[in-house]
Write a structure and sequence with these properties.
Oligomer: single chain
Strand order of the largest sheet: 4-3-2-5-6
Shape: elongated
Distance between the termini: 29 Å
CATH class of the largest domain: Alpha Beta
CATH topology of the largest domain: Nucleotidyltransferase, domain 5
């Protein structure tokens, strides 16, 4: 198991002493689906709202407490699957006094006969039921992502950016090689490449076609730009 995952959490609450509002998110690009419950049993209250609208989210939580006859100050425990929204929502919920879990999608217990695609988010109602099981002590339903500090997250972003730029430079270089290979040509791509390209001849002695030569130039500029950016990021690390 990766170091940033843990199989269970210390989220167990004294539910006999105080009621708790449980909330699961299904985070879409345009809209979010919410499912609320006070525990196992009754059908959850489900709502849909515009994505990333924090004031609306707080209104929905307050309304859920009212509809489910909970105290306005009762604890809220929530969860969502790790993905594009990363950690900002977790920090937002924590700032409003809520306990939140970010769930590793790959770790979620599923029916072996119904394998999930990597991009197939779990139904919000199912996610809520698993949250209730998890808080109740079933430690194997999923693994929880350990949330980094903002500084740690920023450092990870730098590392990811360097990897992306390295891949981009390689893609540009491979495109040049592929273009030239179509004419039976192999040439080292170095700082002298533009000059060598102008002098390059095909098997019959003719120059490389103008459009191919132009495309190679565009890719070369792209490769150089990616390499320069990578150097800039590395020096600022």
């Amino acid at each position: 198991m990766p170091a940033n995952l843990r199989p269970h959490s210390n989220l167990r609450l004294a539910t006999n002493e105080q009621p708790v509002l449980y909330l699961a998110f299904e985070l879409g690009w345009d809209s979010w689906k919410l499912a609320f419950a006070t525990g196992p049993g009754p059908a959850p209250r489900q709502r849909e709202m515009p994505a990333r609208d924090v004031p609306r989210l707080l209104q929905e939580i307050a309304e859920a407490k009212r509809r489910l006859r909970l105290p306005a100050d009762c604890p809220v425990v929530s969860c969502y699957e790790a993905g594009r929204d990363s950690f900002w929502l977790h920090r937002c919920l924590a700032a409003h006094g809520m306990q939140n879990l970010i769930v590793d999608s790959a770790s979620i217990e599923v029916n072996r006969r119904q394998r999930r695609a990597k991009s197939d988010n779990l139904d919000v109602g199912k996610l809520l039921s698993m949250l209730l099981r998890y808080v109740g002590g079933e430690t194997k339903v999923w693994s929880v992502v350990q949330v980094p500090t903002p500084e740690e997250e920023d450092a990870r972003q730098l590392h990811r950016e360097l990897i992306t730029l390295s891949h981009q430079a390689t893609e540009h270089t491979n495109r040049i090689k592929g273009l030239l290979a179509g004419f039976g040509l192999v040439i080292e791509i170095d700082r002298h490449f533009p000059k060598k390209l102008k002098e390059l001849r095909q098997w019959d002695g003719t120059l490389v076609p103008r459009r191919c030569s132009s495309a190679c130039g565009v890719s070369l500029n792209g490769s150089r730009l990616s390499t320069a950016k990578r150097g800039g990021f590395s020096s600022s690390a």
